[in-house]
Amino acid sequence: MDALDIARWQFGITTVYHFLMVPLTIGLGLVVATLQTVWVRTGKDVYLRMTKFWGKLFLINFILGIATGLVQEFQFGLAWSEYSRFVGDVFGAPLALESLLAFFTESVFLGLWIFGWKRLPKKIHLATIWAAVLASVVSAYFILAANSWMQHPVGTEIVDGRARLTDIWAVLTNNTLLVAFPHTITGALAVAGGFLLGIAWYHLWKRRKDGIDTVDASGRVVVGEVPGTGRDKADHRVWFRSLRIGAWIAVIAFAGVAVTGDLQAKLMFEQQPMKMAAAESACHDGTGFSVLAVGDVGSTDCNDVTNLIEVPGLLSFLANGDFNTEVKGVNTLIPEYQEAYGEFLPEGEMYGDYSGAPVNYVPDLAATYWAFRIMIGFGAIAAAAAAAALWVTRKGTVPQSKWLMRLAVFGILAPFGANAAGWVFTELGRQPFVVAPNPAALAFGGNDGVFMFTAAAVSPGVELSELLFSVIAFTLVYFALLVVEVRLLVKFVRGGVPSSMPGLLHGGDDGPSGGLDSAGGDEPENGRKKADDVLDFAY
């Protein structure tokens, strides 16, 4: 393993870890803003409770997401300085817009939302959460604009060995971006839907287990309550509506993911045919889609792959929308790539020990193949489970089965897994390029040169030992942060709505004023405010 391998592992670990938090932040933020909108319009206490509880979890995830996201900025200068030099003129625009228009807006208005409960008029306070959430969506757009340019460079020319931006509008309306953005947002909503469903199922099951809710002879729920604990009839409505809302979001979001994913696949067959051929294990030209293949892990040789089950015509449908057009396989594409971009890496200082080395244009077959299927499989499983949950809970509660509850809770991980696998597929499948070439340039009689091999992107002055130390350090720190986030989430999930509205535990009114002081914590006792947890500042 050399410096390039360690640098790739480092960026992969930090990126995938950060991306676990991004879809939950975006999806749950949209849900929380919508719930608060319904509360402001209807005045119904159940929506205030839902806003407070889910908003608390949103804040925990947002804070940890910011902490892990900051590392990404430093990666470009530390381990990937040659890459930064090559794309700096292009990336500078969308990333600056992301910081100025999105990140700062998001942070400022989220702060106003946190401290503005009962200090700002309701509608202005509502506007702050919408401004913060929409800023996070805008932030995702600019980040995806940069990443989509890496997948399909447009609006750029090469000047003195560097990519120079010639058309910012082309970058911001890149067709790769216009498909990747809705795919990412619907994926984020799928994560939020599964999150609501799993946690709400747990609380409804807990009410059944504790004997608060029962069912009559027809199987319909009989809602009970325990005064002074926050587990009243309104509490049941919080969890039941959260479950149903989450399940519907998950089902609808998966439909959106499927539609946008199909469009994305068709674009990839045009823009990165090798990536999609490898993902389908399509070593030879044909129409069949591989359902199951086996091969050597880490191999980039089609001779090491054996297709066991194949569906005729399906690959043609994914690529072209019909069932009979032959799609180029890996073995056909290899000489085409070699002719267009060379059989060997260029000679030069920036390539170091890789100068003149043969270029393998086939990505890791096992990684792309299985990441693609995990992405689709986990997404489909999550959607099917959500649809089943809508049917099972039609009579007002969940079954008393402990195993079903555990399945629902662990099911929260499925859409997270689908999102992470999709990201792994997108990035690994682009190899050996860090900036993939635009095939459209070949149609005009040549190669425009706007691409970069990964071997040329790593910082030349960084040693293997330094990279190894940093990747171990990042992994340990990120693991510690993961433990912190999971413990915080578990603590507040188990605490239920009273963990966000402590006044409910003291028998206070659970309406909009809800036994809460102006900051949203406990009523003062003897002139002093009780602090139950470090996040009391949030409300």
From TrEMBL:
Biological process terms in GO annotation: aerobic electron transport chain
Presence of the UniProt keyword Transferase in the record: no
* Entry GO MF terms: electron transfer activity; heme binding; metal ion binding; oxidoreductase activity, acting on diphenols and related substances as donors, oxygen as acceptor
The UniProt annotation puts the region (Disordered) at 503-539
UniProtKB keywords = Cell membrane, Electron transport, Heme, Iron, Membrane, Metal-binding, Transmembrane, Transmembrane helix, Transport
Q: What's an example GO cellular component term for this entry?
A: cytochrome complex
Principal cellular location given in the protein's record? membrane
Classify the protein's membrane topology as the record does.
Answer: Multi-pass membrane protein
Query: What highest taxon heads this organism's lineage?
Result: Bacteria
Instruction: Answer whether the UniProt record assigns the keyword ATP-binding to this protein.
Output: no
What subcellular locations does the record give?
Cell membrane
Question: What stretches pass through the bilayer?
Answer: 20-41, 53-71, 91-115, 127-146, 180-202, 245-265, 370-392, 404-425, 467-490
Q: To which protein family does this belong? A: Belongs to the cytochrome ubiquinol oxidase subunit 1 family.
What is this protein's record name? Answer: Cytochrome bd-II ubiquinol oxidase subunit 1
Species, as recorded: Arthrobacter saudimassiliensis
Gene encoding this chain? appC
